[in-house]
Amino acid sequence: MAELVKERSRPISLAAGELLALRQWRWDAEKLQESAELDYDSQHKENGSPPSYYSISVFAMARGDDEQVPELIERLTTHVLAKRSSAHMMLITESELSAGGFTLIKHEPPEHHYDIPVGTDRRGLRVEDLANAFGLDEKIRMPR
What is the pLDDT, as a whole number, of residue 2? Predict the structure, then answer.
């Protein structure tokens, strides 16, 4: 998994206990807008009431005390690939999201699933900001 760390354009700096999030392809603003709207509408239909925010789904896990970043990436990608298939992914730390004004909110099931809230008004979602935080040039090939 060390090669996945090298494929990322930014080095991964992650403290023990900090979350590392994985988003599967695509993460451009247009796709994020579409995903946020579909998820919001789906939750509204399922629950009978609208969610309190629009969000983008990611999987995330915290780095263990003695865990190296490549080990965490292997644990995270193995978990995600057991649930969904994708050719590409991007990785972002909790600190990087926080620096962009975003938070991770645990929203299970499925296990290790998180929301990144992007707003409450469909017309003013912060999808462009989130796409920039994700890094539009980030495109790491998922391990097979």
Answer: 47
- Residue 120 has phi, psi (to 5 degrees) of -115, -10
On the question of a cis peptide bond just before residue 143, with omega within 30 degrees of 0, the verdict is: no
Percent of the residues in the chain that have a pLDDT greater than 70, as a whole number = 86
Question: How far, in Å, CA of 104 to CA of 55, rounded?
Answer: 10
d(CA 131, CA 27): 6
Structural element, H or E, at residue 1: none
What distance separates the 2 farthest-apart alpha carbons in the chain? 45
Q: What are the tens digits of pLDDT across the range 59-75?
A: 999 999 999 998 999 99
pTM of the model: 0.87
Indicate if the pLDDT at residue 54 is higher than 60: yes
Structure tokens at 122: 């469909």
137 vs 9: CA distance, rounded Å:
8
H/E stretch holding 22 = strand 19-24
Residue whose C-alpha is closest to residue 19's, from 55, 46, 53, 59: 59
